[in-house]
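Hello again, I could really use a second opinion on something today. Take your time with it, there's no hurry, and the full record follows here:

___
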Amino acid sequence: MCPDLHPPKCVQPPLSSSSSSPLKGGQEAFAPLGLNAGAFYALSTLLNRMVIWHYPGEEVNAGRIGLTIVIAGMLGAVISGIWLDRSKTYKETTLVVYIMTLVGMVVYTFTLNLGHLWVVFITAGTMGFFMTGYLPLGFEFAAELTYPESEGISSGLLNISAQVFGIIFTISQGQIIDNYGTKPGNIFLCLFLTLGAALTAFIKPDLRRQKANKETPENKLQEEEEESNTSKVPTAVSEDHL
């Protein structure tokens, strides 16, 4: 029982919600990003083998296709980041880009063996634009869901998820290509991208960081000033009218 002379010493501070595991609240975003990044790692690793399978002697162009994927992905990451910063539509943007990644992967899968290398350049570049453009969206979305946990923790967990899926997908797809060909191997990735898109659709968009920023004293003061300025405008107009 608490002594009467020093009651404050017995008061235990409430446990902060941030003391819970960083997985809580943001664990839904780890698997979709891991699936997307893992598919990208597997595709990048096995790209040379797939291109040479259908286009023998085109080692140089296989490297150029990989460069096209990287450059298109850089452009996609920049554009998606700018859009997300302006719109703040985290789940909607993430889901749309994920679905477009799946569409690009499907188109690449069924056009790889057409015999036209320029088609592969276009489809691979389009796929890289959305697949790599999704990565910064996924990291930002996870940071929103895991707030107030450190962004370094969520980024580290996302990287672990991506590396684990990347290893699994690279080994599995390599075995499928060796035994059945490139199309079944790419369909294998399409199935998991479909799963990732479905998981993204069920993520609850609890944007904790955005809510915390709106509740800061600076933002509240700015909102009060805007409201006061708005309320003063009709008064000034009425005085001028009189």
